[in-house]
Design a protein that fits this description.
Distance between the termini: 34 Å
Number of domains: 1
Radius of gyration: 17 Å
Strand order of the largest sheet: 6-7-8-3-9-10
Strand content: 25-35%
Bound molecules: adenosine-5'-triphosphate, magnesium ion
CATH class: Alpha Beta
Helix content: 25-40%
Number of helices: 10
CATH architecture: 3-Layer(aba) Sandwich
Shape: globular
Length: 238
């Protein structure tokens, strides 16, 4: 079998002396959408920040395309092809849409015309609002901009931290649809979500974190059909 694109092996992450992630192991194969689910405080954001080099693990290893990266700085991860869309979007409020996208291409030389056009084809509303300041966009548009900005680095693995948070159902549906499109264009996706139902509908596999540990892992279909998952994470309407 091929080496997974991403391997997290027995990782512990601490804040000061307090462990937030305990002995976490997971993997993502090329071409997959893998979702990481869990309640508030389960350790989802910490896991993504650790993978993208923003928080070093206390112990354990992270391998991207077979190479150890857990001690490398975050900007190197972006160059290697691993981009992170953070929780809360974090776009640059006082820069235009186009300037925000330009920032996402940092470190890449050459003509960015095709990259801008690609982002505008995925998110036509960004194309219409190129000169508008980021801070004046709606929540959904800001999320689109945050994803578009990450795509400007041409990632092979995209980490998304709760892209649906605080958005209206129609906007959420279009964001999830675009995540599916991004995958068909060859980008592997790690999707952190509390919106378990919709995340599992577009994912191939999922992990459920509880208190910094993997509690369940299975195919998305199996997790959707598991009574324990349905009761704890999917609500009665799932
Ligand atoms: N900067 C920090 N300093 C200390 N403890 C932290 C810090 N950030 C997170 N934690 C703790 O680590 C644990 C995991 O938090 P994390 O933010 O990773 O969870 P999460 O699953 O992303 O939650 P949410 O769904 O609310 O975003 C929690 O107990 C949290 O209180
Ligand atoms: Mg979080």
């Amino acid at each position: 079998m091929d080496t997974p694109m991403l391997q997290v092996e027995h990782v512990q992450v601490r804040y000061g002396s307090v462990p937030a992630i305990h002995d976490l192991s997971l993997h993502i194969n090329q071409g997959e959408i893998v979702t990481v689910l869990g309640a508030n405080g389960a350790g989802k954001t910490t896991t993504l920040r650790m993978i993208s080099g923003l928080h070093r693990p206390y112990s354990g290893r992270v391998l991207f395309e077979g190479e150890e990266i857990q001690n490398r700085p975050a900007h190197e991860h972006v160059k290697r092809g691993l981009s992170h869309v953070p929780e809360g979007r974090r776009i640059f409020a006082t820069m235009s849409v186009r300037e925000n996208l330009d920032m996402g291409a940092f470190g890449r030389r050459g003509d960015l015309k095709d990259d801008f056009e690609h982002v505008y084809s995925l998110f036509p509303v960004l194309g219409e609002r190129q000169k508008q300041l980021g801070g004046t966009l709606s929540g959904g548009e800001q999320q689109m901009l945050a994803i578009g900005r990450a795509l400007m680095a041409r990632p092979r693995l995209l980490l998304l931290d709760e892209p649906s948070l605080g958005l209206a159902p129609m906007i959420i549906a279009s964001i999830f649809q675009i995540i599916g499109t991004i995958r068909t264009e060859g980008v592997t996706v790690m999707l952190v979500e509390q919106n378990a139902n919709q995340a599992l509908r577009i994912a191939d596999r999922g992990y459920v974190l509880e208190n910094g540990e993997v509690r369940f892992e299975d195919s998305a279909d199996a997790l959707l059909g598991d009574d324990r998952i349905r009761r704890a994470y999917l609500g009665s309407d799932a």
